[in-house]
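INFO worker-7 received task bundle
INFO bundle size: 2
INFO processing item 0
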Amino acid sequence: MINAGYVTQEDILMNLQVYFTDLVRKLFTWVEGIFRFENDIMPPEDRINVRMDLENIIIEGSRQLRELEQLQDEIPSLDMALKFTERPLTNINLSVDEWKVVKFVDPKNTMRQIAKTNKLTEIEVRRVVYGLLQAGLVELVRPANVPVQQSVKTFPTQDKEEQKSLINKLIGRIRQL
């Protein structure tokens, strides 16, 4: 493709850098598993090396992680649906991503489905929905035609001593309030 003049080597390197940056950012969302970075191992000779400024990626990734945690506090589940409020605002200006989401606002569509349809990441759809919620345009509802699941909540542990310890910790925290 380079020899045919369709793309330049710089175009390929830039696209690889964007792709790898997105992959590294996804590492920040991992909550379990093992990751090991081996700084001394060099890539094979037949691979294209792409230089990346990891410090900026780490700073941006940690900022996005904090933002995602805040958004998850506001919107705990993407399996909820959206519906327009009874008194939606008029004369509002929406971004492209907001319009993409608004097109699919319907109690039958979960936020996860809306994100998948619009090819939005979890953080992107949460960010857009949070803005729409704050603007008073939409509200969260249970998805239509989805039965409410009754889950059996069990104590986190079956060990009686550990259960007593957890309860005592809870009592202690409540007393501190």
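INFO item 0 finished
INFO processing item 1
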Amino acid sequence: MKPAGIIVHYAEVATKGKNRPTFIKHLARNIGRTLAGLPFGGVQVVSGRLWIPSYSDDPPLEEAYARIRSVYGVASFSPVICAPLELNALKEAALSLVEGRTYETFRVTSRRVFKNQPLASLDVNRQVGEYLWEHHPAKVKLKDPEMEVFIEMLPEGAYLYTDKIPGPRGLPVGVTGKVATLLSGGIDSPVAAARMQRRGCNTILIHFHSHPFLSRASQEKARDLAVHLARSQQVATLYLVPFGELQREIVTVVPPPLRVVLYRRFMLRIAGEIALREHCRALVTGESLGQVASQTLSNMVAIESASPLPVLRPLIGFDKQEIIEEAQRLGTFETSILPDQDCCTLFIPRDPETHAKHDAVAAAEAKLDIDRMCNDALQRMESFDALAPWITRRPRPVPENTEDTEVTEKDRVKNQEPPEPESHAHGED
């Protein structure tokens, strides 16, 4: 039997108290935009889950799955068939799900959303299980069965499925605010950006390059990475900031060991100005403590003091292998390792400072016209809207939402979710 649609479950979103309706609306909107152009109807909130009906006899499920996997806030999702809340109908629907499939062990797991529904979960588990066994004799196994039939009984009917596909979890992008990520083109910064998306942040991206002193390769990588990151927020604005002239000025007056620290301080100043224009609340970097010379505690303190905004470092406690493995899971690793010329490799000193002192940094910067240098880079920067592959035009922006977003009593009642106790074949209902 062809699926009637897709059911989506969320986890952390459901714990957000009075702001839960707002979080759920964001999640539903994000999924709806992600499925643009596919034969699915509008995303509906149905008793603590999201329902996406299909209006095609043969919906492109694999494409839909690939897109939904990029939506943060999704705990799991499943292609489902629908049936009335009547025992014989549930038996036939369950049988149609397993028809033609081979398995040696199975179980039936049903769940009532409301306790006043006529069918008890334990009875459904037992009777549907017996019916399946009559047609496909197999051993009942409650732990790790080869085949598990899920039945979710809601007031309007039942959803049945066998596949529970993991989602990326986290919070819907957009619910916790907006940040600006410094995107180097390497392995770390795309992972940092994705980590912030997973915590509900919409992110703009800022890439510093040294063209024409170096090739455009890093800019092309940054564009490709921006398109990948746009999959989770539909649009990711990428700023391309020329940095080579600024570096050349630094080199002429700053002692070699301090060059990298000053490069980074100027980056944070410029990125901070862009972030403020974009109404971002923080900067994000891919720094990991002790990974390179500029990422010692002393240098981080010296560098961050130049930033007009807080600097978030979601990878601060990761080692390189952990970051590589996450980049591989995200799908950014192969792009990140393409050869390029990072701007920080231009005029790189042989022995960079690892414990920069405030007085030394201040003395070095006193020789520079900081405001002019930053303004010059800002005037010459370019911007680029990276769109998710399924987006043909930039979506209409929606208001930012935060933890203290007000939700009306009407919203709370409309989106109220009853408890969802899960019962098993030999448990109590």
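INFO item 1 finished
INFO post-check item 1: The chain has 14 helices and 15 strands.
INFO post-check item 1: Residues 402-429 have pLDDT under 50 and may be disordered.
INFO worker-7 idle
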